[in-house]
Amino acid sequence: xxxxxxxxxxxxxxxxxxxxxxxxxxxxxxxxxxxxxxxxxxxxxxxxxxxxxxxxxxxxxxxxxxxxxxxxxxxxxxxxxxxxxxxxxxxxxxxxxxxxxxxxxxxxxxxxxxxxxxxxxxxxxxxxxxxxxxxxxxxxxxxxxxxxxxxxxxxxxxxxxxxxxxxxxxxxxxxxxxxxxxxxxxxxxxxxxxxxxxxxxxxxxxxxxxxxxxxxxxxxxxxxxxxxxxxxxxxxxxxxxxxxxxxxxxxxxxxxxxxxxxxxxxxxxxxxxxxxxxxxxxx
Length: 283
Known about the structure:
By secondary structure, the chain is mainly alpha-helical. It has one domain. 67% of the residues lie in helices and 0% in strands.
């Protein structure tokens, strides 16, 4: 019998890589997926940030609650007089507006440094960049939670009952959070690349406070109130504030808020896909 014919062994397929077409979208999606799956890590980091920020303080984050309470009490009586408005109608509006604005402005400010302050971690540990954005978002969410009882207290004092329409605040809050996360991702990368963007963002945020109905009510614009829908800050705030005050926003405002959310999330994701691989060099 002749020697057996050798069996040809099939070699494994060669791994090819095209540098001109990297897996940017896939890697960006993997980063987001892995970051959200490790949500306990940004929660722990956010709690550590809060403890370090208020280390040695007796009241801790409650100082922010007291500061907010003093602010809306003083401004409530002052602007109710200046604008000739009923305090029973104006003060609940002011409380909800200031709490939402504080979350918005604080989140915008910290978004600019969300990646640069994590320089040591980014350079030493292979963590998803999504973790750092979630850390900033959750830190501000925990701090904002200390102000939520103020809304309940004011509603009880003035006998405000928003009714079943208050449930619309849940999808409104989801839009608010989505915008917050997208803004943190985008500004974190942009400010890591261009350090001059931070002061510009601070100036624009301050301007947005005065041109948005935070301390003044939209009704003061009379027939020009319809143009407020072009203000993205107003749209995103109103889908939360309106249901809480028992004044559900119109479908136009909901559509504007949803459109802004899609636009901001799309811009942030596109920027993340294109420049994710450069973040470690930028910080």
